[in-house]
Here is the input.
Amino acid sequence: MTQLRLIVGAWAVEGLRWTRQNLYAVLVLTPMVLGMTYFGVGRIVRESEWRATDTQLLVMSIVSAACIVALSLSRASAEIYHTRRPEALFDALPVSADAQLLAALLSRLCRTSAVGAAALVLRWLAGGELSDAGATASLVLFVFVVASGEVLAALEWVHWARVRVRAQGVAMLVLLAACAAVGGLLLAEVLRSGGLTFAGRAEHFNDGGLISRTGSLVGAGLSSRVGLHAFATLMTATLAGLSFVLHRRWRAADGEFAKRLGARERWGTLVERVARRVCGGRAGVAAQLARDLQLTLRGFSSAVYVAAGLAALVVVALVALLTGGALHAGEGAGWLAATWTPSVLASKFACVLAAASLASVVPVLVAHQQPHLWLERSAGVGGEDALRAKIYFARVVTLPAPLAAWSAGILCGAVSGSYALPLLAECLWLWWVVSTLAGALAFEMPAQPGLALILMTCVAVGAGGLAALLWPMGLAIYAMGARPLGVRGAARARTHLKGEDA
Here is the structure.
């Protein structure tokens, strides 16, 4: 316990030092970004007439819990094995492995609590009561279950990358899937006022008459909130206990491997060739772009997998929407009117969301490269070249989004054959707008990738959504916003390269 108190005290001192160095970000940028999010998302939630059913809410909650666990793989593994962190000094001190893992678990609990706070805000926006004792208990258990799952997932991720035992990986995936399911149930309990009922009406004709049936989708043992809480407590104890056991067994062998995880060369020649082709004669920009693409292909962060997974989910949701018969293809509509048919709008909005999801890798990459700025400094890289490399990177990694959205729209019969090429042109235009704006904001908040991600997503989705409704509006947004953002982005990149922002 003494060792843990010393570790927490060191964190507190470091946190206070960081706060003093980033007062502008804490007192100005953070309230501004959170306020934009509240007045944007909050008003939509309050004024929208759509309310998710219990089944829809459960699916979204389970997916959210799984994404939280997947997104934390890189950071959690760094916290456990102190990769590129000052805590690496603990390995040379008489600090026990259990104390180090307990400190990592405490860090995960604090970070997951931020997600729980966001869930409380969503509950309040939806009209739920914050004083519900059952919802509070579900929230606390959600934090513990997900945090324990994050630690175990990070341990298994590093160990599996070293030994590649398939059976062990499958067993761990099953356990983590159960963790995501329980966490999703708890999160749904927090978001839904009065708890989950899963009661729904199914109507169908039988012998000419209309029969109404009411069914329950709650399994035995989890039908009550008490049973869910008991199972979540057992799940937390299982995940945490297994983490401590595996950590004692694996740390000696996995600790060194974690420091070089993802260091294998893949697609090196092809990436360099693509970078030279994209950047033309700019050798310095091409070298930076090649390095960024290589890091992404190696999976430098679990955010790469989450971004790709979210983009894939958007395309799958588009296919389900277009094939479900809810939207018409607008056949018979004029060439100009076809751009506003529901199926075409769905394809364009899916393109924007998929591109924004893939572009979310950009701020994470900038934060990952921050400890290695000496490479750019020694090569004499300027702010304009650094910004241009990130804009090219954003365009390359988001290129699959318009192609996938357009292909889904065409293959599902969303548009007529005469509007196939115009739809492709619109999707490519949306990709260009979203990727350019996302890349221009790469150095806006390099030390806070979470806030940068929110800001980038708001700008990219907002501009892309307006351009999807009316593509000439995208021309105006691009003409008025791209150049000022480029000038500011180059200045921010120069400041970042000088090391004047933490």
User: Anything to note?
Assistant: Residues 197-222, 262-267 have pLDDT under 50 and may be disordered. Strands lie at 199-206, 209-216. The CA atoms of residues 473 and 479 lie 10 Å apart. The chain has three domains: 1-49, 51-196+224-259, 268-497.
